[in-house]
Batch of 2 targets.
Target 1
Amino acid sequence: MKKNAHEVEILRQTALLYIKEIIDVLRECFLIIDSNLKVIAANDLFYQTFNVRKEETEGQLIFDLGNRQWDIPELRILLTDIIPKQGVIRDYLVDHAFETIGEKIMLVNAKQIEASEMIIVAIEDVTQKRQTSLYARSLIEASLDPLVTISAEGKITDVNEGSIKATGVSRQLLIGTDFSDYFTEPEKAREGYKLVFARGLVTDYPLTIRHKNGELTHVLYNASVYKDAKGTVLGIFAAARDVTAKRSLEEKLAKFAVTQDIKVTERTVQLREKVKELEESNARDSAVLESIGDALVVVDQKGKVKFVNNAFEELFGWKQEEVLGKLMVEVIPREDEEGSTVPFDERILSQVLAGKRNATATSTAVLPDYYCIRKNKTRFLATGVVSPIILDSTIIGAVEVLRDITKEREIDKAKSEFVSLASHQLRTPTTSINWFSEMLINEEVGTLNQKQKEYCQEIHQGNQRMIELMNALLTVSKIELGTFVIDPAEVNIPGIIDEVLEELQPNITDKLLSINKEYSDDVLQITSDATLTRIIFQNLLSNAVEYTPKKGIITITITKSGSGVQIEVKDTGCGVPVHDQKKLFTKFFRASNAQKLRPDGTGLGLYITKSIIIAMGGTINLESEEHKGSTFSVTIGNQDASKKELKAN
Amino acid sequence: MKKTHYKQKVLVVEDDSSVLRALVDKLTREEFTVFQAKNGEEGLATALRDCPDIILLDILMPVMDGPTMMTKLRKKSSWGKKVPIILLTNLSTAEISVVKAVIEAEPAYYLVKSNWSMTDVVKKVREVLENRSGLKLAKEIQNTVRKDLIQKKDCKLER
């Protein structure tokens, strides 16, 4: 072995010499160290580069070089840990600040030579290169846009922070992977870099980067190939411009435009519908206006005719086109019975337009009956209403509806004549029956025997009932025809009641009835219609007297009720059966027990009574128990309704 | 019943013969000298000729109605101006306004035929005759009559 060891030593020395020769000509710093990490040799470039002398180096521990400036932790790890294990170090970057020569970035490659246990350490000073590269890198990193270098095979060789952000993938994982993997359209990406290789340059190539969370970044790539000194293409440098914001803005704009478009469309549809609605409503209104049998004219705020309907044209003989824009008061003059023209400002239309009449949308002014003059100068009696047209509380016009009431007046007259005829013609025969039977009963033309007298009395009484019935019927007809006129005046209720009681006195005396009067002092006078009030108490009191048995009690109570009075007529009579009470006030209805007691009653008394009370704005109520008695409560004189007429004339 | 003193003259103007007869018979029995006429024209002639103390005058009659006769009578003679007239009415629609107008302006009265008993009619005639000299009294009676209008079972009519 010793001889062998010697031979080995000789070989080693020889090899070393060769190596030394070799390393001296290489343009890289070389160190040869032994297994104890002591420097055996270094090339000249090493000494130059790191500014150390040969004498200070050879035989020294590598870490002690340059006054221990070479005690670099990374280098220690490389040489004491990695080399013994792996025997080789490839392209390890060591960045170290030397006291004498400043910062150096060194690319370290090392290899242990087997058998000789020597380690050859190649150190390339890449400081300059690296700084340029770092500068470039910092530029690259400083760029927010995703930048990437791609190898000729399409693998990512480097990326910047922008790319990491855009993909969500770390640098380590990105490098070495397929460039095309990170796009929504890998094929397009591949085509893209092929294009770069083919043309050397591509600008504004649109691609979409897909983040691993799915988020998309729309980019435009500018890419160019990069070459080595000999012009061999090494790869592609690609810079993407993030146009997502722009795209999203554009999309938003597009969307906005679409939305606007939709909105506009919707609005248009709405407007169209509205227009349709209006047209329909217009058509409906026109149809309504046209179909109205009454003449209708619409005027603007100046009283100028804006519209007339068919009935207007027919009634007045004016065509719409003849009167449009003309003053209504001039188109249709109006005069009173005597033929004197009603002045313009007294025309209700003028007053309504001037807001002098209570001008609310719902209010209509009822026109007094005047004669309207037609186009052909003939006239007719008209009635009508005027309503203001109010928009935003401003009177913008008015609608006047007019009706020829000539016929109505004729009917009215005929009706009145019938009532007159009925009352006159029917009453005349009853008058003679009344008087002749009376004279017979009074034996003015000779004595009658008992039977004859009784018969005559029957005739007389029958006739009396007929007169009463006729009076009642006439009253009913007046109520129903609305020819009653309520004429309010101060009336003395106790006075009226006393007068009625006086008329009933014979019957009251006969039946030994007691009349109790319980009057409040402050209600002697009320405003009511005397004649009608009389009719009310005639009916209520005669009923009380009629249907109360002998020795019964009738109590009349008057109390104040608002501005009017409440009058109660209470009797101890037969009462009204419960099932009859509801219908008691209806025409011709008679309670079952009353029918038995007095078969000849008309069934009109309470109907008339209630009708009158209602017309006067009062109330009537009944409380009754059969066989015990009835109480009728009436309130009257309580309303301004007193001036009301059942028929407006 | 038979007295020889001056019989007061009553003119009854009424177109309904039955009613006319009732009134004439009754008033005759009541010792009045009774003249009768079937319409206003006859009535006016009779009145001007016989100068009755009182006239019972129907309102609605053919040829000439009561109010027309009354107006003419009032115009034609000084006697006619003063003679008391009781208008006989049934208070029909057409009559009510006439009656109202007449009693406002003239020394006249009225009674509602169908509502009045014959006894009451005679009573009213006597009353008017007894008071005919005094206008003041006449006014009072007029008021009474008006009250009667309200009291009797009838109601006011329109117009």
Note: The helical segments of chain B are 17-29, 40-50, 66-76, 78-82, 93-105, 118-131, 135-151.
Target 2
Amino acid sequence: MQNKSIQVKGLQKSYKQLHVLKGVDFEVGKGSIFALLGSNGAGKTTIVKILTTLLKQDSGTAAVNGFDVAAKPDNVRQSISLTGQFAAVDEILTGRENLIMIAKLRHLENPRQVADDLLNRFGLTDAADRRVATYSGGMCRRLDIAMSLVGKPQLIFLDEPTAGLDPEARIEVWKTVKELANSGTTVFLTTQYLEEAEQLADRIAILHEGKIIANGTLEELKKLFPPAKVEYVEKQPTLEEIFLAIIGKEEK
Amino acid sequence: METIQKHFLSDMGIMLGRSMRHILRSMDTIITVTIMPIAFMLLFVYVLGGAIQTGTDNYVNYLLPGILLIAIASGISYTAYRLFMDMQRGIFERFHSMPIARSAPLWGHVLTSLVSNAISVVVIILVALIMGFRSSAGVLSWLAVAGMLVLFTLALTWIAVIAGLSAKSVDGVSALSYPLIFLPFISSAFVPTESMPSVVRAFAENQPVTSIVEAMRSLLAGQPVGNDIWVALAWCLGILIVTYLFAMRLYNRKAA
């Protein structure tokens, strides 16, 4: 067995005139959380699409779980799951129907049981038989991620999983992602929030102008900067901390 | 690879189940594809029909083939709409990153189009029977009518697929159905073409709907169908093949 989930070498991709990826290299270890950090339009989604066989690269190689994405897309699809930037849920179906549909498409033994377990795990049991159109943004995302876990894929891709979510929902998603990694699933996530990468990732790569300009653990990345100076600054609570504190009080 | 091929039919069945739920949960769809054609039929038979000279004593018999085509034409515009919505949202990306045949979601929509249109056709025929529609056609003729309707549905469905894949907005998708629904009006579906001015008449007699309607009408009346059925078949198959090839190319480009 090899211990790399993803190996990318010299990946290039252009859309017409626009040269989005200019030779991207990185590796993701099995069972880790890898965060790809970059600003809007940096090419994060392009990398996700290539790795999930939705898009073909112009040059370079990419292997997922040992299978080349261009040559063996079917093998790649067997072992991955994608939670795209836009919630990939069917809004007209109920949460339960969505999960059962995916379980059937993955040809699992007992789709109904699989759906029940995931609904329970993601706190959606009460909403299970409501149409997804009535769900809040956070519930939608949770269902989205639950759908990606049907069939226990070894590697899951989360493309900006917390974009557009309120702080509470974001923390919920973070918790889910951490639990995933604890259960041995490899997580590849893209984000533009520095804090998200800091909170979740074992390794962080920064994509900038088509290339990975930094790649390492948080500690390693910190070493790239001049040593910390000691300064005394009054610690003000952030608005997020205030928000969460007030919300917390309300609920008690 | 073999497993993907093996499951193709069951995967398509799951997609069919999904879209059929979409239809049954959309009042708008049900009204447009069955209630509207039935309302047209009532209107033409009981309001306008008395003034229309068709040379037959039973106007429902005359009218029914055209009503069925209108129902199908409005039905396929929902196929275009459902496909468009799937392309817009992330659900197709999820399907395409799963180990299922890449074309299964598309064929699911095509199959749904066939099944849902077949249901509305049956409902409309039942209402027509209550309104006095009678046919002396034998089993073979009915099979020929069914085959004709299936071919017509498929031909229009592939047009809908092209629209659903290439539309930029929901409005663009729904614009598709109007010319298709309008075609039966400028044909022999409601009135004989002899009463039309020469230019309109020339168009009416040479567009596909007239030959399809005439062929179905003769089959249902148990009369010899003559050339119409071959012209109708040629139209349907011709449109079907061209639009299928074009739609598949578009799908493979969009979803690759």
Note: The two ends of chain A are 50 Å apart (CA to CA).
